[in-house]
Amino acid sequence: MTKTHMNRSARWLSRKGFDIERLRFGLRTALASCLALCMAWAIGLEHPQWAAMTVWAASQPVRSLLIEKSLYRVLGTLVGTGVGLLLLLAAGDSLLWLVIGLAFWVGLCAGVGNALHSMISYAALLSGYSASMVALLGTASNMNTLALGADRLLTVLVGVSMALLVGLLLTPRSSRSDLEERGRRSTARVLHLLAERLNRQPRITAQAPNELLADIAILEAQLEPSAAGSRRARHSARSQRSVLAALTATLLWVRRREQGPHHAAAGKAVADAALAMDSAEPLPTVAEHLRRARRLAEDDPALAEVLGRLGDALIERQYFRDTGRTQREQARRLVIRHRDWVHARQAMLRTTGVLLVIGLAWVVTGWPAGAYVMLGTSVMVTLFSTFENPAWIMRHILAWQAVGALIALAVRWLLWPWAGEEWQLVAILLPLILITVIPFSHRRTLNGSMDYVMILLLLSQPAMPLTGTFEHSLAVALAVVAGPLLALISFRLVFPTNARRRQRQLEGMMLHELEAMALRGTAGREEIWQARLYHRVMRLVHWAHLQGEPTHRVVDGSLTALTLGEVLQSLQRYRQAEILPGTARRIEASLRRVGHLRQAPLEAAAALERLAHTLARRQEVELARRARHSAKLIRENQGFFQHDAWVLSAKC
Q: Could you list the residue ranges that cross the membrane (predicted)?
């Protein structure tokens, strides 16, 4: 077929609703899955369909992600298989202890997986449900424990090897040049905006910084996939994230409503830096302009700080380009990534509780298919707990798993009885795997469609002689489909989550830190708090963008949190100095009020205003002005500080 015909076919498929890149990826994955099934069957593995399932789980559309996910899948499978075998050996004949041990292990893995980043998170989640597969299928099939563990591990290795073989041959290399160029353009735009602000050019509206913050937040969210595949890629993403955090700090300074002193000379230096970035000059040249601007703005500590931060981040980026790595301590000073401990704790409690309820019901009733219910549920509540809106995707998964279960029943009782040899059982599965590509790549059906083939393969073990009854097959199919149904119910009822709730939880964590800062001080952790806050701002803006909401609320709230945090640090330092006892008591009383910021933001604002009067009488004019300004921001952004009771329990 000529290139012209291929382009014409691609355009026709695109008009019919197919995603062409996803179609190519689906074809590669389906081919590798068929090859893995045949290979695993040919070498005599007990569950060759697991190898085909592994291909779908490990394959990725770009090479770097494929390599890293495959390696972490092997790691997670090794850990999960080992724990599953230990649980079987430790529990012995006691189903109750097996259920309890498995529920707590899978829950722990779900919590750890939600607290970590990148593919290590995936490995943690996989460690949980791999243990479920070994322990529960071993219980259901009465297969030798060690043989089952070895079979699970070997099928995963076959699947990963085939996914890597086909992927490395047919998957394109990922390109990071687009992220690099977008980062350069964003940096130039921020510098031009800062120069305009310093030179007091026509008034800058709040919309311009907000739009730039949204672009930066989207870019930061896309760094994670680009960090896969090599150590150099991870260091590249780390240095880029430092630059984006510094740009966020700069934009928050631009958004400050208070009018600072005129900085024409510093503005000229920043304008030179912006022009140098436009011309793609070396980053040290840009950083030198920013250092010059910082020296010219020494009378404005906040401005000097953001200029220094951005200059240091650009130097760190250049250090990566020269050496292929980053300086860990320098990168940590510039940005500390947010970890959602609240969501992680909720995922752990949800997973453990749901599996305990299901497992105890299985123990009490003795239902033979109970192992499959617990297995399906453990996979769903673990793997999809990291999604922005797991209940929404679970509805699609439930529908596709029902389709897969029906097809599996039809294969077992309508098609396989006609087969005379075991290879024919495998051959019947191959076209059913390949047909997955159609729903997998169509825009209307792609959500959850991969679970059709996963359930089809899970329920279809190609082994002669065919055994069992239709009633047993139906019970197992219903038990497997009950997994996503129970997961859907748990995601809706037990710590329900979506992008909006996670945004509010993150806001609660930020405010909890402010309260702790007011009550206990920061004890030398000012830089850590600030570096983490800039990454949290990017996450908040990203979640607001996902929901189609205007970003001004979270930007204004974040700016208020930053301003208040800086004031609290100054007040704590002032309180520890030699001051009059009456002033010290007034500061302590005001800080106690701020320590209940979420419950009573207006009272905290009033306490800061009263404190500002006291400080002004003590000739602390600048600190009084900043305290008064913080109180004003709290009043103007009162909604950001008032959280529901479930958010008030958030811990950092």
A: 81-108, 120-141, 153-172, 347-364, 399-416, 422-440, 474-495
Residues 6+ away with beta carbon under 8 Å from 542: 217, 218, 220, 221
Judging by beta carbons within 10 Å of its beta carbon (0-12, 13-18, 19+), is residue 90 exposed, middle or buried? exposed
Spatial separation of the C-alpha atoms in residues 469 and 475, rounded to whole Å: 10
On whether the 177-334 domain is CATH 1.10.760, my answer is no
Q: Where are the domains of the chain?
A: 11-174+340-493, 177-334, 499-648
User: SS3 sequence, 284-347?
Assistant: HHHHHHHHHHHHHCCCCHHHHHHHHHHHHHHHHHHHHHHHCCCCHHHHHHHCCCCCCHHHHHHH
Beta bridge partners of 18: 442
Q: Structure pTM?
A: 0.81
**In this structure, what token pair is assigned to residue 86?**
């230990």
- Which residues make Cβ contacts (< 8 Å) with residue 248, sequence separation at least 6? 213, 216, 534, 537, 538
Distance CA 621, CA 605 (A): 18
What's the sign of the alpha-carbon dihedral 85, 87, 91, 94? negative
pLDDT in tens, 261-303: 567 888 889 999 999 998 888 889 999 999 999 988 888 888 8
Cα distance between residue 147 and residue 145, in whole Å:
5
